[in-house]
């Protein structure tokens, strides 16, 4: 194993990427984590290549950072968009055994891999062991850097996680989970930055990073992956909510506990990292962004247009408050909070995961301080989605009860009830629902009625009062089932 983590970087062979090009053009757009779906790939450029296992051995392993070039709008200032950079782990074999058939990329006919088969290496236990060993030994391999905070056992058996989203994960012996970022950017990534900050604060609601891997390329640093403790027996909040809905069970107690967990994370982040005050100019800039997104979405989705004036009123109300001198505190937040980003352990404790933020946004924007209402709004919208996703008609009052319970739990642990600032909360919920309308119209038209139902409520300004009120403070709606 030590030989695998002390090799030199692969030679910068001009034939390496050229030989893979036709295979990657076919394979890459089919991957769940590929961000450029619907646009042709016009070419690739090699950002970095590192040999982890030699290609002339029975099993070769290469780590690649590859930029995919596609027709895209120009970057600010009229500069052509450079294309997205993806992290690839390419396995090389003479032929694939049947167990690795789902990992096939293709057969190479020329270049350094000529006559051999290349595949997605994370499906293969041996390459996954190589990565863990590099983390365990704090290896330096070419431009790759492997760091760790805690000890790692060397004998953990890896397996590829099946529930893939915008990244890929490998589970090691039910002890650790390695999240490998697929679409990578240079700079500080909040998916490592925020859990490290929370670990220093001793916050138990977020699994602390055990180890991580980065790449140093041309004086720029890329975060490539984070190893964290695996929460055994955990169920994500989305699955748990749908399961409860299918059985007709009340979910408000879980929503209330999740609200407390979210407030604890926000409180710890406010202690660990600087907070700022948003006054008139900062809030107006925020409102301008919301307005621009509304106008763009209404242009793209005709069904949204009748509600645009009412939705705009949510943003105008926030701008008016700021103009009157009202200020808000902003801090680091999760940035993409929903039920799928939360885990409930077998003991009933909630954890928050995946602090990457919205992957489509620039890192600088994801790392900006924002009001905690943005995270709260994301979770409130998630309850609404769950209510419409269980199959059959939504249970009457289920989403309203969960939304109220979440806010009650948040107030219990955070000392501030999000419902006491209805103008800010409505603005963020409106912005989120507009995003959902555009996403569903482009990707899942059958789901468009879900965010449109929220849009109708939000456009009248009655959403906050009708959907999150909890006069008794119990966190449970009387008609929730």
Strands in their spatial order, largest beta sheet:
6-7-12-13-10-9-8
| Termini gap | 54 Å
- Strand portion, in percent? 15-25%
CATH architecture of the largest domain: Alpha-Beta Complex
Helix content: 25-40%
Can you tell me the CATH superfamily of the largest domain? Aminoglycoside phosphotransferase (APH), C-terminal lobe
Number of helices: 13
Q: How many structural domains in the coordinates?
A: 2
- Provide the CATH topology of the largest domain: Aminoglycoside 3'-phosphotransferase, Chain: A, domain 2
Q: Major sheet, described briefly?
A: 7 strands, antiparallel
SS-based class: alpha+beta
Question: What Rg is obtained from the alpha carbons, in whole angstroms?
Answer: 24 Å
Average pLDDT for all residues: 89
Unreliable spans: 1-12, 464-481
Q: How many distinct beta strands?
A: 18
Shape: globular
CATH uppermost class of the largest domain: Alpha Beta
Tags for this entry?
2 domains; 18 strands; Aminoglycoside 3'-phosphotransferase, Chain: A, domain 2; alpha+beta; 38% helix; 481 residues; seven-stranded antiparallel beta sheet; disordered C terminus
Overview of this protein structure:
The chain is α+β, with helices and mostly antiparallel strands. The model is unreliable at 1-12 and 464-481 (pLDDT under 50). The protein has helices spanning 14-27, 125-136, 190-200, 237-247, 252-272, 280-300, 308-323, 363-366, 373-387, 398-414, 422-443, 449-460, 463-468, and strands spanning 43-53, 60-69, 84-93, 104-107, 117-120, 140-141, 144-148, 158-160, 168-172, 176-180, 183-184, 211-217, 220-229, 235-236, 276-278, 328-330, 342-344, 350-352. The chain has 13 helices and 18 strands. The strands form 4 sheets. It has a 7-stranded antiparallel beta sheet with strand order 6-7-12-13-10-9-8, with helices on one face. Strands 1, 2, 3, 4, 5 and 11 form a 6-stranded antiparallel beta sheet that branches. A 3-stranded antiparallel beta sheet has the order 14-17-18. The chain folds into 2 domains: 2-229, no CATH class; 235-468, Aminoglycoside 3'-phosphotransferase, Chain: A, domain 2.
């Amino acid at each position: 194993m030590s030989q695998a983590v002390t090799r030199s970087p692969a030679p910068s062979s001009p034939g390496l990427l050229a030989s893979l090009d036709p295979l990657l053009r076919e394979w890459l757009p089919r991957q769940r984590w590929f961000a450029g779906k619907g646009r042709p790939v016009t070419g690739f450029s090699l950002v970095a290549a590192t040999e982890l296992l030699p290609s002339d051995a029975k099993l070769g392993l290469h780590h690649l950072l590859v930029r995919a070039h596609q027709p895209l709008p120009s970057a600010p200032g009229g500069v052509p968009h450079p294309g997205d950079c993806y992290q690839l782990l390419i396995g090389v074999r003479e032929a694939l055994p049947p167990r690795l058939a789902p990992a096939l990329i293709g057969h190479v006919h020329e270049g350094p891999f000529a006559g051999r088969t290349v595949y997605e290496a994370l499906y293969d236990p041996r390459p996954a062991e190589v990565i863990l060993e590099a983390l365990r030994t704090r290896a330096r391999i070419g431009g790759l850097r492997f760091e760790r905070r805690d000890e790692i056992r060397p004998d953990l058996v890896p397996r590829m996680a099946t529930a893939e989203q915008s990244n890929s994960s490998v589970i090691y012996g039910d002890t650790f989970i390695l999240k490998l970022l697929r679409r990578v950017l240079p700079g500080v990534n909040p998916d490592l930055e925020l859990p490290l900050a929370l670990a220093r604060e001793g916050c138990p609601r977020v699994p602390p990073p055990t180890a991580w891997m980065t790449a140093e390329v041309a004086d720029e640093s890329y975060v490539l992956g984070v190893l964290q403790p695996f929460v055994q027996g955990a169920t994500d909040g989305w699955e748990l909510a749908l399961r409860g809905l299918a059985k007709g069970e009340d979910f408000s107690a879980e929503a209330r506990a999740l609200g407390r967990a979210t407030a604890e994370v926000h409180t710890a982040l406010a202690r660990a990292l600087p907070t700022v005050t948003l006054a008139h100019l900062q809030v107006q800039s925020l409102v301008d962004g919301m307005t621009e997104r509304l106008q763009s979405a209404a242009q793209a989705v005709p069904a949204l247009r009748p509600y645009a004036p009412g939705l705009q009123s949510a943003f105008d109300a926030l701008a008016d408050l700021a103009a009157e001198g009202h200020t808000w505190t902003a801090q680091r937040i999760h940035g993409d909070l929903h039920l799928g980003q939360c885990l409930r352990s077998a003991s009933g404790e909630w954890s928050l995961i995946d602090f990457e933020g919205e992957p489509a946004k620039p890192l600088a924007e994801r790392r900006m301080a924002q009001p905690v209402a943005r995270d709260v709004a994301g979770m409130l919208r998630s309850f609404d989605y769950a209510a419409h996703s269980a199959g059959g008609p939504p249970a009457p009052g289920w989403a309203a009860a969960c939304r109220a319970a979440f806010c009650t739990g948040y107030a219990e642990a955070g000392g501030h009830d999000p419902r006491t600032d209805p103008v800010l909360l409505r603005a963020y919920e409106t912005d989120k629902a507009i995003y959902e309308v555009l996403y569903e119209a482009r990707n899942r038209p059958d789901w468009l009625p879900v965010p449109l139902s929220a849009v109708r409520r939000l456009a009248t300004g009655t959403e906050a009062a009708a959907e999150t009120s909890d006069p008794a403070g119990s966190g449970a709606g009387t008609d929730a089932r």
